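Please produce the structure of this protein holding magnesium ion.
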Amino acid sequence: MENILNIRNVSKIYQNAGHQLTVLDNISFSIQTGSTVSITGPSGSGKTTLLGLCAGLDRSSSGSVELNQVALDQLTEDQRAAVRNKYVGFIFQNFQLLPTLTALENVMVPLELRGEKNIKSHAMDLLDKVGLADRSGHYPVQLSGGEQQRVSLARAFSNKPAILFADEPTGNLDAETSDKVIKLMFDLNREAGTTLVIVTHDLDLAGKTNRMIKLKGGVIISDLELSHA
Ligand SMILES: Nc1ncnc2c1ncn2[C@@H]1O[C@H](COP(=O)(O)OP(=O)(O)OP(=O)(O)O)[C@@H](O)[C@H]1O
Ligand SMILES: [Mg+2]
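Below is the modeled complex.
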């Protein structure tokens, strides 16, 4: 099986008021196409930063990131956006819905970018899957945190991504909704072969993946294959 993601010697260093902060320190790992991976670790350990680099949302300070055989490091901002739109779904820790668009319109954006047809009904189907058909006309401020998270999920699913990055996808959800969302992600993995990379504090969720990577202080402190016999 080939790798959908190859991370080699990646570091991320922020310059802040004259001093350097090393948030990721020389990280290397690969992720197999079609697998499911969880990333855990304490607050501030670099999980969101790592996800952003893997997804091509941000650039590393050094090292290389290869996504679906494309080396992201040499690309311009626009080229990286094109790669993201083609292969990547992203569920943000803070949702990042567009505030001036309704729930439905937020889900329609990636479909529009891909030039799809029947985007409205496709977007409605996706909202329906996350249980929000009756909230399609609401703006983000008119939605609860969990509802915004589900819109974000529907949006991430909309372009049938080869790889889905989810940053605490169940962090704001009640147990029942959380179970639904988890099922949707794993269904996507099984049915469409979407690779899942999930940052989570929820060990139940992490335990459902094939592999658990643990970060601390910007380095990988453990990397375990999980068997689901
Ligand atoms: N733009 C930035 N400039 C400077 N420091 C940053 C920036 N973004 C993140 N950091 C720092 O990098 C470290 C890692 O942040 P990151 O968001 O990756 O952590 P995390 O593991 O996702 O934490 P959490 O579980 O709280 O979401 C933190 O100490 C944070 O303060
Ligand atoms: Mg985070």
